[in-house]
Write a structure and sequence with these properties.
This protein is globular. The chain starts with a strand and ends in a 9-residue tail after the last helix. By secondary structure, it is α/β, with parallel strands linked by helices. Helices cover 37% and strands 19% of the residues. The protein is built from eleven helices and twelve strands.
Length: 295
């Protein structure tokens, strides 16, 4: 059985409570006030952590995309200008760090380039998240591993061979793999939740699920299939502007999601058949031949 992974005193893996992450990502649209409201919503729902994204726009934006003009709430601007507009700077992340500490909720981020990995290190995060887009970037993977921190690797838009190569580069020590389909939002028939079993049977590390679907039931199914780490995007309103909003969960939905995950988690049990004390009166009432009377 894979060893559990320590996320700053909270262990993730078999036999441990499921680690639930509300991904704020870029759903704050560059507004620190919105980010704080999302942190509050995640905390109220009972999440273990919130997650952001960190980029150096000049490095993380593909060259052929930088000068494309798009409509935004702030007017027409190039894609690079948009990325710069919504990126939080050091002062903003310092405030996020302080705010999360005051609220008693852990936070970390997915880094999209090597300077962003170094930037996040100053905040002593419980782990680093490696986005699916970085799975084939060996140099960036090595940068993550050099931090010595636990790592969460998303596996969207990747073949099994690419996943094997990434795991070989990273090693399985303090690694959590998350099954993911990188479509926003993702259709149910493309979620392929059975991959949770495939990853668990293939690699010696805990396996989780990062979902981008509409609705909650398929995320609950991922828990029933054995996911030990759950990540869903959170938003104040799915109608807000932004590429990830439609695949996100509003605060009320997130409260139901966490509640139902904890119920399903308790119901799954340990797979050892036993007769519960609550069944004893029913045995005496309904069973004509008790176990002890059988020869």
């Amino acid at each position: 059985m894979p060893q559990s992974v320590d996320f700053g005193g909270r262990r993730v893996g078999a036999g441990e409570p499921i680690y639930i992450v509300a991904e704020i990502g870029i759903n704050h649209n560059g507004d620190l006030g919105v980010a704080k409201k999302l942190i509050d919503a995640a905390k109220l729902s009972g999440c273990d952590a919130v997650k952001f994204q960190k980029r150096t726009p000049e490095l993380a934006t593909p060259p052929d995309q930088r000068d494309l003009v798009r409509e935004t709430p702030w007017g027409n601007m190039t894609y690079l200008e948009y990325r710069q507009r919504i990126e939080f700077d050091e002062d903003a992340f310092q405030e996020i760090d302080r705010y999360c500490d005051d609220r008693g909720v852990a936070w970390f981020a997915s880094a999209w380039d090597e300077p962003s990995v170094a930037f996040l290190e100053q905040f002593d995060p419980p782990c680093h998240k490696i986005p699916s887009a970085a799975l084939t970037d060996d140099s960036l993977l090595a940068s993550f591993r050099r931090t010595g921190r636990p790592l969460v690797l998303s596996t969207g838009m990747s073949t099994m061979e690419q996943i094997r190569e990434a795991v070989e580069t990273l090693g399985t020590d303090s690694l959590v793999l998350t099954h993911c389909t990188s479509t926003y939002p993702c259709r149910p028939e493309e979620l392929n939740l059975s991959m949770i079993h495939t990853l668990r049977d293939t690699f010696d590390c805990p396996v989780g699920y990062s979902g981008h679907e509409v609705g909650l039931q398929t995320t609950i199914a991922a828990v029933a299939l054995g996911a030990r780490f759950i990540e869903r995007h959170i938003t104040l309103d799915r109608a807000m502007w932004g590429t990830d909003q439609a695949a996100s969960v509003e605060p009320g939905g997130f409260m139901r999601l966490v509640r139902d995950i904890r119920i399903v988690e308790a119901a799954l049990g340990d797979g050892i058949k036993r007769v519960y004390p609550s069944e004893q009166p029913i045995i005496r009432k309904l069973r004509r031949v008790g176990v002890a009377e059988r020869g």
